[in-house]
Amino acid sequence: MKNSILFLAFLLLSSVGLSAQKEYKATHEGWLVNIDDAYALSKKTGKPILANFTGSDWCGWCKRLSAAVFNKPDFKSWAEDNVVLLELDFPRRKQIPDEIRQQNQSLQRAFQVRGYPTVWVFNLDKDESKGGFVIEALGKTGYTATLEEFTSGVDQMISRGGKGK
């Protein structure tokens, strides 16, 4: 089921500087860390965004999900064809730029994420009149033990909601 969420606090997201973006990289290769970059790529490709809310350096289930799904070559191939990858990390030991931390916290509140890992799949549109984004949530998942279970679940979310706009 599609849910639409108007999220106006995204104004702060446009303040994420290029220097912070260049210095800070996602834990996994091929993942973006900036919602503006994910939005631009989603619009260009017509693919929804797959956002992984994670505690990469402390969350045991997040590490298991990475090993079981995200680190697999077949996942990388599937993702390239189906989604735009966005990592929203909440580390305890690793430092992240304040702008990225604020962005991640804003998205955590918007999606009401209370535990890790949580993976949301969504389409994103700009609402120029209100200066924010409109999020069309396609679905969410958490830890899954296998790549097949994960990609099958996300494929179902995408097919129910349409592939981007």
Task: Give structural notes.
The protein is of the alpha+beta class and 165 residues long. 40% of the residues lie in helices and 22% in strands. It has one domain: 3-Layer(aba) Sandwich (Glutaredoxin), CATH 3.40.30.10. The chain has six helices and five strands; from the N terminus they run E-H-H-E-H-H-E-H-E-E-H. Strands 1-5-4-2-3 form a five-stranded mixed beta sheet, with helices on both faces. A hairpin with a 4-residue loop joins strand 4 and strand 5. It is globular, with a radius of gyration of 15 Å.
Short description:
By secondary structure, this protein is of the alpha+beta class. It is built from six helices and five strands; from the N terminus they run βααβααβαββα.
CATH superfamily: Glutaredoxin
Helix content: 40-55%
> Could you please say which CATH topology applies here?
Glutaredoxin
Q: Report the C-alpha radius of gyration, rounded.
A: 15 Å
What would the principal axes of the Cα set say about the shape? Answer: globular
Q: In the residues, how many domains can be counted? A: 1
Beta-strand percent range? 15-25%
DSSP, total strands = 5
Largest sheet: 5 strands, mixed
List keywords for this structure.
165 residues, alpha+beta, Glutaredoxin, 6 helices, 5 strands, 22% strand, globular
